[in-house]
Amino acid sequence: MWRVLLLLMPVPVLADSLIATRTIRPQSTLAAEDVTMVEMYIDGAVTDPRQAIGLETRVAIYAGRPIRLADLGPSAVIERNQIVTLAYTTAGLSILTEGRALARGGVGESIEVMNLTSRSKVTGQIGSDGIVRVLPTS
After folding, report:
1. What sign does the CA torsion over 123, 44, 32, 50 have?
2. Residue 20 near residue 35, CB atoms below 8 Å
3. Which residues are within 8 A (CB) of 125 and not within 5 positions of it... i.e. 6 or more apart?
4. At 15, is the pLDDT very low, low, confident or very high (cuts 50, 70, 90)?
5. What pLDDT, in 10s, does the model give residues 83-126?
């Protein structure tokens, strides 16, 4: 009596990958002419240009190298050392004050800010209006 052994192995899916057409400096906003699709699977590379175009590079990306989502983020609306408005709201209480951004960041990102009045560091999320909203601690 014969027995058949079936061995299943994972095979990479063939897909297009996004690569840089030129060297792109950090803190540059990606445009359509900065990227191109290649017919090969590159682990971790973006497969749809719409996911990357308009985002800002966090690191230098060299010509011919893959574009990875981990190397991209929203365009910065706050620069390091910029004076920003800090907002703290809880249970009907709202406090606005000024702080100094300790990092740069884009809408939706969390950054550390030094409260200029108390000199303490707080972490807040950047709003679309550029205000850093400090979340209440529990």
Report:
1. negative
2. yes
3. 108, 109, 110, 132, 133, 135
4. confident
5. 999 999 888 899 999 999 999 999 999 999 999 999 999 999 99
What is the C-alpha to C-alpha distance for residues 91 and 17, in angstroms, rounded to an integer? 48
What is the model's pLDDT at position 4? 67
Which amino acid is located at 134 in the chain? V
Rounded Cα–Cα distance for residues 58 and 80 (Å): 14
Residues contacting residue 112 through CB under 8 Å, at least 6 positions apart:
102, 103, 121, 122, 123
What is d(CA 5, CA 24) in angstroms, rounded to the nearest whole number?
50
Residues 6+ apart with CB under 8 A from 10: none
DSSP string for the chain: -----------PPP--EEEESS-B-TTPBP-GGGEEEESS--TTB-S-GGGTTTPEESS-B-TTPBPBGGGEEPPEEE-TT-EEEEEEEETTEEEEEEEEESS-EETT-EEEEEETTT--EEEEEEPTTS-EEEPPP-
Q: pTM of the full predicted structure? A: 0.68
